[in-house]
Each structure stands twice: as structure tokens, then as C-alpha cells.
Specification:
- The chain is α/β, with parallel strands linked by helices.
- Helix content is about 35%, strand content about 20%.
- Bound molecules: (3-methoxyphenyl)methyl 1~{H}-pyrazole-4-carboxylate (JCQ).
- The site of (3-methoxyphenyl)methyl 1~{H}-pyrazole-4-carboxylate (JCQ) has 18 residues, from β5.
- (3-methoxyphenyl)methyl 1~{H}-pyrazole-4-carboxylate binds next to β5.
Length: about 230
């Protein structure tokens, strides 16, 4: 899958998206993540990308014509264009599962001072990471690309890790343990050392349900409602 990020701060996204699992996925040719400086499409020699707001007020507003030129250069019929914005639809695992169906995803990083409102006509949707304001959309863009890219077949080395999650549906993960067997008086649960695979599976399921009920009553309600109706 191809990704392109449009940003005023390429250095903020290059390292996280080139490291670890996504770095390996890029080397393996499973994903291709392009990072582009919006300033490359600025017209004058000063490379200005923003201007003062019509109607007055503090700060600067990003010009829509420059973002439009950048998108004209990058988009194809297979592109899905996303703008990072606290005013957008809330990002989630379900949204990531929808985004991975596109061949090409372009993310335009918004900026706290704002973009000309006509940007709306150039993007397919606006996505929010949550109800908080960032200085720029770069951290949101990294989160979206990471969450989508890990769903591309082959990106997660172990095929079971992605499957386990969808199997457990809306539940939180079960607790995991490794050596040492005892740490500061805390023992690894006996069942995990028993070698009884069926008992281990049912203990993990029970733990996942308990943690979800205690920590995320909202997810627990969805789980109960959906398993009740056979969904
Ligand atoms: C993204 N959750 C928070 C800030 C305006 C496009 O307009 C704006 C963009 C930003 C940067 O993104 C965020 C954000 N998801 O703050 C203000």
C-alpha cells in the first residue's frame, strides 16, 4: 500500500515511519511511505505557505491553493485523502480497517493556526485522533499511517498477532508474562506454566473479559450487546 504525507515538518514524521516494523515493511516492499514538504509547492521565492486571515484576527492561515497544487501532483483515481483535524470524524480501529481497503492514502497535516476552510472541498474526509489540540497534524498522521500499515498483509511478521485481536473482538488484551517467574514477590499465574492449552485459552479469555469490564465499561457494553444478538 502507498502512503503520502503532506506536511510543513517532514522531519517530524520521517523517523517514526521509517523505524521498527514500518521500516522493515518498507524495505520488504509491502508499504511505500512518501513524505513531502508542502513548501515545495509554494510559488514565490519566499516559499510562503500561509497568509493573514480575512476578517482579521491573530495568527496565519495555510493557503488552500498551495495544498491543492500538492494534491494535484500526488493524487490518482486510487487515492483517499485525509486531513488531520480535531473537528474530524474520530479515528478508531474500525476506521483503520476501512482505510486499508484503499490502494493509496494521502494525509494532509493540518496546523493549529488553521487552514483555509475551502480545503474541505479537496479532501475525502477529516479525521481526529481525539478531543485534544495538537500544534500540528503530524503526530496524528503518524498514528493513522501506523495503525493502517500494520493491517497490510505481511507487515506483522507473526500472522497470529493480528488474528488474535480480531478474534477477541472489542475486548482488551489478556495479560502476558515472561521470565522471571517471580518478580518482587509477584508470581506468574500457575495456569500459564501448566502446559494445558485449553485451560490457558479459557483463563486468557476470562482475564480479557474481566479487564474490559473493569477498565472500559463502554467496550464491555458493546461486547455484551453484540454477543447477545449473535453479531
Ligand atoms: C488531530 N486530533 C487532534 C489543530 C486545527 C486542520 O485544522 C487543525 C489541525 C490541527 C492539528 O491536528 C490536531 C488533531 N486529531 O490537533 C487545529
Amino acid at each position: 500500500m502507498k502512503f503520502d504525507i503532506l506536511t510543513l515538518h517532514p522531519e517530524m514524521v520521517r523517523v517514526p515511519l521509517g523505524s521498527s516494523i514500518l521500516g522493515r515493511a518498507t524495505e520488504a516492499g509491502l508499504v511505500d511511505i512518501g513524505v513531502h514538504d508542502i513548501r515545495d509547492w509554494a510559488e514565490n521565492k519566499h516559499k510562503n505557505v500561509d497568509d493573514t486571515p480575512y476578517g482579521g484576527g491573530p495568527g496565519m492561515v495555510m493557503r488552500v491553493d498551495i495544498v491543492a497544487r500538492a494534491l494535484e501532483a500526488l493524487r490518482t483515481d486510487a487515492s483517499h485523502v485525509v486531513l488531520t483535524s480535531p473537528a474530524g470524524r474520530r479515528f478508531s480501529q474500525r476506521v483503520a480497517e476501512q482505510l486499508v481497503t484503499h490502494e493509496h492514502m494521502i494525509v494532509v497535516c493540518g496546523h493549529y493556526e488553521g487552514i483555509d476552510a475551502r480545503i474541505e472541498t479537496l479532501v475525502d474526509e477529516e479525521l481526529s485522533l481525539g478531543d485534544f489540540v495538537l500544534t500540528g497534524g503530524e503526530i496524528a498522521a503518524v498514528a493513522y499511517v501506523d495503525a493502517v500499515a500494520r493491517l497490510v498483509p505481511g507487515v506483522l511478521g507473526n500472522a497470529a498477532s493480528a488474528m488474535d485481536e480480531s478474534f477477541s473482538g472489542h475486548l482488551l488484551e489478556y495479560p502476558q508474562y515472561t521470565r522471571p517467574r517471580e518478580f518482587r514477590g509477584m508470581e506468574v499465574p500457575d495456569v500459564l506454566l501448566s502446559g494445558h492449552h485449553a485451560r490457558i485459552e479459557s483463563w486468557r479469555q476470562q482475564q480479557a473479559e474481566r479487564r474490559t469490564r473493569e477498565r472500559r465499561p463502554d467496550l464491555w457494553k458493546r461486547f455484551v450487546d453484540e454477543s447477545g444478538s449473535g453479531e
